[in-house]
Structures are given as C-alpha cells and as structure tokens.
C-alpha cells in the first residue's frame, strides 16, 4: 500500500522512535511535585502521545492520574497491565505464583505488582478493564471479576482520575449527585483470583521496599515535617455535598435541576425553543460540524436588590463554528451611549412619554441561512432519538450570526411599519409622519421608545407584541444597568448598585473614602517595578470602570490614564487604581442629572494637557459636549503623536471635538431637531482659536496633517464657531489632569454630576441601602 509519505520522500517512514503502547515508563515528575524531597519519578504506563503539546501521556496507576512529560524512560519489554485473554469465563482459582516467577528488570515501589504477559494465554474477544494495583497495606488479595466497571480496592488512598465518566443527566431533580458513578461490585478479601485478571505476586523480603523509609538524618538543626514523618492529609471539600441555595447563580445543570426555581426556568426556556421551531432532530452524518451547547443561569434583580426572576438560557458554543461554512457576516445592534443621552434629553425637554420593553428570547426570532447542527441540550434529550442532533432553523444565543439575524428580522418589521433607520446609528429608528414623531432605540433585546403621541406609541407596541414575544416594562427605571430615576426636574442617571458590586468585588467596601480620584502629585511611569500586582484583577477593574464612565465623566481621566498600564501593572498602579475605588466609595450616590432645556444647541469645551505623559511626552486631549444644559458626550484620549507646542496639542483636540459635533449634528437632523445656531467650541488656548479662524503660524504648523485643517473650512462657512474661554471656566480641564479637591468638586457639579440627596426625595434611602 502506497502512502503519501512514500510518494513524497520515496521511502518508508521510520517507526523506531515510536514507543510500545502499554509498556512500563518512568516520566520526570518534577512539575507535579510540591517539594524537592518528593520522588522525581514513579512507575507509569505509556498511553500514547499528547494531542495538545509535545509530550508523552503516562498513566500513574498509584495515583490514578495521567502525567504529560517530555522526559520519559521506557522499558518496552515490561507491561504492568498484561492480561490473559484466553478464557471467557471466570474460574474460581488462579495459578499459584511465587517470587521465582517474577521476571522484572526494574526496582518496584510497591509490594504487589502484576506479572508480565509471559503467563498470559491467547487473546479472547472481550477485553477486561484495567485493574488498579493493590496497595501494600492489604494482606489478602482481592477478588477481581470480569465486570466492565472499573473497581477500586478498599482502604485505598488514591485520588480519582481527572477524566470523570460520562454522566447521563436526567431531568429528575431528586437524583442523587453523589451516586452518579457507582461500581457494580465492590471487591472483598478472598484467596481466589480470576484467570482473566493479571496474576498478583508477592515479592520476597529482599526485593520488597518497606512502605515508609526511615528519614535521613540532616546535617543541620532545622527540623521539617518530612524528617519527623508528619504529613498532613489534604482536605478536599465537595460543593455538591451540601445543598446550594437557589439564590446563587449556578454553573452545573445537575445542581440546577435540584431547585424548583431553576428547573422551571429551564423548562420555560426549552418550551420557548420548541414553540418557536428553533430546531428539528435529524440523524448525524459524518460531514456534520456538530457544535455543543450549555445552560447559563442568571438572576434578574430589581433596582433595589431583590430577585425579580430566575433566568436560564441555552447557549450554543459558537466558538466551534467554521467561518465561511457555518457563518458569514456578524453584527450586533448596540445603541451608542451618546445616542441614549441625546434622546433622553430631547424627551425630557419636550415632556414626551418614555416606555421600555424587553424582547423574550430575542435571538430565537432570527432565521438562519446557513446549515448549523448542534447536539441536544443537557437534561432535555429525546428519549426515542437520544443520538440525533439538532438542525437549527432559528438563531440561538452563542451563534456567531445570531445578533445579525435578529437585527435583520427586527429591522424588516420596524421599517415596514413606517420607521426609517438612522444612518448615523444603525440601532436608532425614527418615525416622522403627519406630525407624529417616535424614536425607537434597541440594544440587542432591550428597547427604549419615546414620542409625542401616546396613542401611536400604544398601537406600535401592540403590533410589536404580535410579531415578537415581549414584556412591556412601562416607564424605564433600569436600562442597561443604569438606573433612570425620575425627578421633579428631569431624570437622574446613576449606577449606584453597579458601584457597590464593584467595590465588593475588589474588597473595598470598607475602604477609607477620598475626595478626588487621583492625587495631584501622582506620577505613573512604565518603569520596571519589582513590586508586581495581580494583572488579571487590575484589568478586570479597569474594564468595569470603563463601563461606569458612561454616567460618570469625573472618573474618565483616571480610567484612561490607568488603562495605559494594563500590560504590566505594578504595585504603584494598583494603589492609584484603589484610590479611584475609594473615591467611588465617597461618591457612590452621585450620578448624571439630565434636566429640561429650552434651547437645544450644541456646545463643546475642549482642552489638552501638553506633554503631560512622562513616559513618551504625548499630550492628552479631552472634550465634553452639551445639548443645551445636559452633558451628552465626553472623551479623554492620548494623542497619537507628540505635539511641538501647546497650540498644536489644542488644535488637534479641536479637530477631534469637531468630528464628534458633526456626528451629533447629523443625528439631530435625522431626529427632526433643527438647530438654528452653529455648534460652538470653547478653548482656553488663544493661539489655537486664532489658528482655526486664520492661517497664522503657518511656518510652525505646516507639518500638521491636512485633515486637521478642515476646522478652518467649517469656520469660514459659518458652520462652526471657535471661541476662547478662560482656564478657570474650562470644564474639560477635569478630563485632562488630576485636580485639587476644590477644583474637582467645582467642575464635577458644573458638568452635571451631582449627589442624589440634592435632587431626590424619598429615594435616598433606596440608593444608600445595601441590598440583601
């Protein structure tokens, strides 16, 4: 038979380097040992080659574990697990063995070892399973049967294998989790052994090694536990041994099926999938790419903390999909935070009705154009077709194309109803006909609706409910993790509970509060500090703070600054990060207050900290944009290149601010809001304001990119105004550098971040109460 190797190299492959399967081997176990006094190697059985790394797989029959090692010594003539395959029945007696029958070329570590294949007969059709070696503390041999279940000897201290047996989960919640894998027969002491099992023999006293070696006498006075023979056993605690309360988010299906609440949530999810016709069962084919799935459990809580409902969701393992075959394009409908604050400001100013909806199983409404196959969900396997697979007809959570399929389904219905899709933000839909204006915002499956006619909003919600299964939540109170609390003068946006969970996650609930998020004397550098910190925890907190900055512009600068050290943070960076958390502890009840405004105009304050970064001397540019009196957009970002002067740094920041203003102006135009006055930019650098109006300082600014000079064209066309403002009135100063406590407090209140006690009545206790 000709193989591709023969054709390519004109020779047969060399199999000399391949080792014999099942032979005795001694791997180097230093990576698995806890201290240097432990053995460097133990006798194992060679199982093959690792598929994930360049190493051998060696089964340790003493500990029932599989070791992966690149340094192994093989004894290919010795087979610890050799069997007699001749007999198919289990005789009552076994051949008598004696120490003279042993032909071992290695020094054993136990008193009882199986013989080699020299005493085995011809193989039979059935293969007996591997039988563990009997421990040395047993005086009698155990009866070993031909049962296919692996049996373990009594009084054995070996730990189970890392590969548990396959568990067939049943939807019965009363099933015992501790007896999912029970041997069919427990061995008992007997003088009889089976012919089908490996014959056990007893080594002579000269060949045997005592169970405990006398400790070596040290040359120093220090006494260790190993020298005194003191070894504390490892205590292993099983979570499944004790009942788990249903108020805990679970990760195991078998545990969830024990609770009525989680079981009902799983049943509701499964019935919704069946009602929607998500899949059909088909027999598997060899060319199918069958992906897996898992159950995800979440607790939906009310804004004040109590559990609202138990939610179970079946999620497909989309990371097993193949691009171009199982999926093509991907997209997720995510509304921009600036658009949310913009629409809320307009609704408050015009006193429109706000309504919130939540689509049930949103991704299940999308239709798939590709053929995707999935295994049956755990706990809900069809009794008549247990080996069939699910051919998906509808999208499912976890699939790569699921968000796009849902968006296309929703978009086709909303556009057919009469809405138009915004070009500036694809997740925004506008209805403007016959003096009826409605805004439709979607964030995956969360919907926010507002308009000037309550009857048209009601009709649209009824039509939407007929098409999709949704919940009408009424006036929004909790949207995308942000609490929307109505006040007498507007809406108060706060993330109080999110901050409390963040402090609890970082173990900072009892930290001492501070008045500013960053010290004015703080100097963060990229130098190699030997005092390192937990990089994973550092990155996790930074990511949480980024989401918090949606409603808290007062922490935007420290979050941006600390994000520059995520690659290798040290103790100094962690201390600065903890100071931000201490500041949040002091301002946990603060939030962004949106108020009605009569004049809907766009104004922006921009500033730059020239060469403020001590590592590369790049400048930090920032801006904050207002719609009337409400801050709706802000940004803090380090500039990509080094500026040669403060004027150049400010001029680049003005260009970035202008692009954001143009985008907001386009969104307002699509919403039907006409702005009479052109947007205004306020900068505290006189040179930059002159440069925007006139081509001055040309010789010193000729190296700038041409795209920065588009600001001049807008100013020349009266589509933009750039004015000078004193540094004391520069609101964007909060986003470029650390400030003193007095200055920081002043600018924070000017931006619109205020404490809840100053605007809320009757809700302060709710905001300051720790949910239990």
TrEMBL record:
Annotated ranges, domain Retroviral polymerase SH3-like: 23-84
UniProt-recorded Gene Ontology molecular function terms: RNA-directed DNA polymerase activity
Keyword Zinc-finger attributed: no
Biased composition (Low complexity): 87-100, 116-176
Keywords: Nucleotidyltransferase, RNA-directed DNA polymerase, Transferase
Record-listed E.C. numbers: 2.7.7.49
Polar residues: compositionally biased ranges: 101-115, 177-211
Keyword Transferase recorded: yes
Region (Disordered): 86-219
Domain Reverse transcriptase Ty1/copia-type, first and last residues per copy: 277-519
Domain of life of the source: Eukaryota
InterPro entries: DNA/RNA_pol_sf, RVT_2, SH3_retrovirus
One Pfam family, short name: RVT_2
Name this polypeptide is given: Putative RNA-directed DNA polymerase
Originating species: Medicago truncatula (Barrel medic)
Record lineage: Eukaryota, Viridiplantae, Streptophyta, Embryophyta, Tracheophyta
């Amino acid at each position: 038979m000709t193989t591709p190797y023969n054709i390519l190299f004109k020779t047969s492959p060399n199999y000399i380097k391949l080792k014999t399967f099942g032979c005795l081997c001694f791997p180097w176990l230093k990576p698995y040992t806890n201290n240097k006094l432990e053995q460097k190697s133990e006798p194992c059985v060679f199982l093959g080659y690792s598929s994930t790394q360049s190493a051998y797989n060696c089964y340790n029959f003493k500990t029932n574990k599989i070791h992966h090692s690149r340094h192994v010594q093989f004894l290919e003539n010795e087979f610890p697990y050799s069997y007699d395959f001749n007999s198919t029945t289990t005789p009552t007696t076994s051949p008598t063995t004696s120490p003279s029958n042993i032909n071992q070329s290695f020094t054993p570590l136990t008193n009882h070892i199986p013989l080699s294949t020299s005493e085995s007969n011809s193989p039979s059709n059935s293969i007996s399973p591997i039988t563990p070696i009997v421990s040395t503390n047993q005086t009698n041999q155990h009866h070993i049967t031909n049962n296919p279940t692996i049996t373990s000897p009594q009084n054995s201290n070996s730990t189970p294998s890392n590969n548990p047996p396959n568990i067939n989960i049943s939807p019965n919640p009363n099933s015992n989790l501790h007896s999912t894998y029970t041997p069919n027969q427990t061995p008992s002491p007997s003088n009889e052994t089976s012919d089908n099992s490996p014959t056990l023999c007893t080594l002579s006293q000269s060949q045997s090694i005592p169970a405990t070696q006398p400790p070596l006498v040290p040359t120093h006075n220090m006494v260790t536990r190993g020298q005194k023979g003191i070894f504390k056993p490892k205590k292993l605690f099983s979570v499944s041994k004790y009942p788990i309360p249903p108020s805990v988010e679970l990760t195991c299906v078998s545990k969830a099926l024990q609770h009525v609440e989680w079981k009902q949530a799983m049943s509701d999810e499964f019935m919704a999938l069946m009602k929607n016709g998500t899949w059909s069962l088909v027999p598997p084919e060899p060319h199918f790419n069958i992906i897996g799935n898992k159950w995800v459990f979440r607790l939906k809580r009310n804004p004040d903390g109590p559990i609202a409902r138990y939610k179970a969701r079946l999620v497909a393992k989309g990371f097993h999909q193949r691009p171009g075959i199982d999926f093509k394009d991907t997209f997720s409908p995510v509304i921009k935070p600036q658009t949310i604050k913009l629409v809320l400001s307009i609704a408050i100013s015009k006193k429109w009705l706000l309504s919130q909806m939540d689509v049930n199983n949103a991704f299940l409404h999308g239709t798939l154009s590709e053929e995707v196959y999935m295994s049956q969900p755990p706990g809900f396997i069809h009794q008549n077709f247990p080996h069939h697979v699910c051919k998906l007809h509808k999208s499912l959570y976890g699939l790569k194309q699921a968000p796009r399929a849902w968006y296309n389904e929703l978009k086709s219905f909303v556009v057919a109803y009469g809405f138009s899709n915004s070009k500036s933000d694809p997740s925004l839909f506008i209805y403007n006909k016959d003096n009826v204006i409605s805004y439709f915002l979607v964030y995956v499956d969360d919907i926010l609706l507002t308009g000037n006619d309550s009857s048209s909003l009601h009709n649209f919600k009824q039509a939407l409910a007929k098409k999709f299964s949704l919940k009408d939540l009424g006036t929004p109170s909790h949207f995308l993790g942000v609490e929307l609390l109505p006040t007498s003068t507007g809406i108060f946006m706060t993330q109080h509970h999110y901050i409390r969970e963040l402090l609890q996650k970082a173990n900072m609930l009892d930290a001492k509060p501070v008045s500013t998020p960053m010290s004015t004397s703080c100097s963060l550098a990229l130098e190699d500090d030997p005092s390192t910190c937990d990089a994973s925890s550092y990155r996790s907190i930074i990511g949480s703070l980024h989401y918090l900055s949606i409603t808290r512009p007062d922490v935007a600068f420290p979050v941006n600054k600390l994000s520059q050290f995520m690659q290798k943070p040290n103790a100094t960076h962690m201390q600065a990060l903890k100071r931000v958390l201490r500041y949040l502890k002091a301002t946990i009840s603060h939030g962004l207050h949106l108020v009605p405004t009569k004049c809907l105009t766009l104004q922006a304050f921009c500033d730059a900290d020239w060469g403020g970064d001590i590592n590369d001397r790049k400048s930090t540019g920032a801006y904050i944009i207002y719609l009337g009196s409400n801050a709706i957009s802000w940004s803090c970002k380090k500039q990509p290149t080094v500026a040669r002067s403060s004027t150049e740094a400010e001029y680049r920041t003005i260009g970035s601010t202008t692009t954001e203003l143009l985008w907001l102006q386009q969104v307002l135009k699509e919403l039907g809001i006409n702005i009479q006055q052109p947007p205004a930019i306020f900068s505290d650098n006189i040179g930059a304001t002159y440069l925007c109006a006139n081509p001055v300082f040309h010789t010193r600014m000729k190296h700038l990119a041409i795209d920065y000079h588009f600001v001049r064209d807008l100013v020349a066309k009266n589509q933009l105004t750039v004015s000078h403002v004193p540094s004391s009135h520069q609101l964007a100063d909060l986003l470029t550098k650390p400030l003193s406590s007095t200055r920081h407090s002043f600018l924070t209140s000017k931006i619109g971040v205020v404490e809840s006690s100053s605007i809320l009545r009757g809700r302060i206790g709710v905001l300051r109460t720790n949910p239990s």
